[in-house]
Amino acid sequence: DGEPSEQWEEYQGAPTGADLECEGWRQEAALRMLNNNLDPEVAEKPEELVVYGGTGRAARSWDAYDAILSELRSLADDETLLVQSGKPVGRFRTHERAPRVLIANSNLVGNWDNWDHFHELEAEGKIMYGQMTAGSWAYIGTQGIIQGTFETLAELARQHYDGDLTGKTVVTAGLGGMGGAQPLAVTMNQGVCIAAEVDEERIDRRIDTGYCMEKADDIEDAIDRAEDAREAGEPYSVGVHVNAAELLETMLEQGYVPDVVTDQTSAHDALEGYYPDGYTVEEADELRADDPDAYLEASLDTMERHVDAILELQERGAIAFEYGNNIRGQVQDHRGMDDAFDFPGFVPAYIRPQFCRGKGPFRWAALSGDPADIHRTDEAVLELFPEKDHLRRWIDLAQEQVQFQGLPSRVCWLGYATDSEEHTERARFALRINELVAEGEISAPIVVTRDHLDAGSVASPNRETEAMKDGTDAVADWPILNALVNCAGGADIVSVHDGGGVGIGNSLHTNNHVVLDGTDLAAEKAAAVFTTDPGMGVIRHADAGYEEALDEAAHSNVRIPMYDE
Ligand code: NAD
């Protein structure tokens, strides 16, 4: 990719304040969010344009990054910029209500939709891995996933324990951009976490930013410290500099069985995300550069041991689940492990009932850069939904324990639920924020976006749509309809990606942004998009026959043609 762009060196994050570089706030929001994705405080390897999740990039090359910025600066209020796999490729006059930026990343035609073909094209500079929020400029750092991880573990605790994780130990691995949220999400649920990570700097980074408490000297030390905390019933987290497979195998040898075992290494990408055992990070990076085939074999060998150990721990009584990195799919496809799917994915196990009601990780960032603006939005969400005790608990915890990274941002799970009001939960919130911007109570526009992992925006048979009730796990019409209807609703940025989370060929998913600048136009867009977007979650799951979705549709008047009451 060459040397980093001089512009990026100068920005070092999103520009803030009320002065615009672009012709309008919608274009400005795109420029700020792109730079926020590449803020050294937010991204994992910004000097390589890598934001998170293995090689998830924000732009295809530094030239493409510079070109995107220059297009955004001159883009008129009635124009739309097209970005194909991280490179600006066209610009058309559309109309003011249309999106300002449309993005398609990493998409390949079915029969060619695999890592081999992708890597050939990537090496020639013709395609880019967009992950989920990397290539769609919606990543906000580890703070973006923390509530999802917290909710997943809270649901696990509700299903298996007394509602929290007091006196329970969760063993996991991967302290990267997303996985780094795990230790804090465990301690927020009062539990104890041991996390393996091969890259010591990542452990240090999570400790520096308050996501992990301590670093152990070795496996023995990690277990001792964790056991002390568990016996005392204290929340505690510790990172240990070791390969995940080695950690779990050592635990098995010692007869140590944690309460919960999961994993968030970047196993979706065996070549550039997952590290084989027996090598330091530097040695493994050299092997990858010198002999990628040997790296792949070694990486898959370790993954096989890793999954074997998870299955054995499950056999011995641990609760095991896959945390959305496709490690089961990898060893099933490449090592013929027939029992890999004997432990469930986190969506069917803990999250799907929320998706049925259109609930998902809704997030917003303050374009001013002023934390006070996010604190005002925190108040607004609690004023709007005073009956939601869980939401209050989340906002209190986030204010106490989650540090801002880059633009001040907040995540919370809101859904459809009109509750006899005119608008959905998400739309009510967005419309209120738009009013606060108009009234000057919030100092600059707020941009609202979300994870691609949402109620009605993903087809991913090993993750979000694993084990659908009607067997439609691989039907990808739904995310495409999601992107189309959000364009029709007037979202300001809309993106469609392949492969995020679970790797090329394994998923299709979409995202959108709406800029709340206090205008009537923003209110119209917000009312439409924050109805269509969670609404897709309700209709997708109703179509698959989920009772919760049918119930939500009935209560919230979601029209589903051909559904006979
Ligand atoms: P990342 O690439 O930023 O971090 C992965 C980390 O795993 C790195 O720090 C790496 O050093 C470490 N690692 C790799 N192999 C290892 C091994 N064998 N043992 C120990 N450590 C190892 O990725 P991320 O953004 O944290 O995402 C992690 C995975 O989780 C990805 O597959 C991603 O797609 C998936 N994911 C899940 C969710 C979710 O909600 N469940 C959300 C986003 C991403």
From TrEMBL:
Name the cofactor(s): NAD(+)
Q: Which reaction(s) are listed as its catalytic activity? A: 4-imidazolone-5-propanoate = trans-urocanate + H2O
- InterPro entries (UniProt xref): Urocanase (IPR055351), Urocanase-like (IPR023637), Urocanase_C (IPR035401), Urocanase_central_sf (IPR038364), Urocanase_CS (IPR023636), Urocanase_N (IPR035400), Urocanase_Rossmann-like (IPR035085), Urocanase_sf (IPR036190)
Pathway where it operates: Amino-acid degradation; L-histidine degradation into L-glutamate; N-formimidoyl-L-glutamate from L-histidine: step 2/3
Question: Where does the source fall among the domains of life?
Answer: Archaea
Residue ranges annotated as coiled coil are none
Question: How is the cofactor bound, as the UniProt entry phrases it?
Answer: Binds 1 NAD(+) per subunit.
Residue ranges annotated for the Urocanase N-terminal domain, each copy included: 14-137
Name any GO cellular component annotation. Answer: cytoplasm
Instruction: Return the EC number.
Output: 4.2.1.49
Alphabetical list of Pfam families matching this protein: Urocanase (PF01175), Urocanase_C (PF17392), Urocanase_N (PF17391)
Urocanase Rossmann-like domain: which residues? 141-350
Q: What is its main location?
A: cytoplasm
Annotated GO biological process: L-histidine catabolic process to glutamate and formamide; L-histidine catabolic process to glutamate and formate
Its subcellular locations are:
Cytoplasm
Annotated segments matching region Disordered? 1-16
- Leader sequence segment: none
Task: Quote the record's binding site residues for NAD(+).
Answer: 53-54, 131, 177-179, 197, 202, 243-244, 264-268, 323, 501
- Stretches assigned to the Urocanase C-terminal domain: 353-553
Alphabetically list the UniProt keywords: Cytoplasm, Histidine metabolism, Lyase, NAD
Q: What class of enzyme is it?
A: lyase
This chain's function reads: Catalyzes the conversion of urocanate to 4-imidazolone-5-propionate.
Stated family: Belongs to the urocanase family.
The molecule here is called Probable urocanate hydratase
Query: What organism does the UniProt record list as the source?
Result: Natronolimnobius baerhuensis
Gene transcribed to yield this protein: hutU
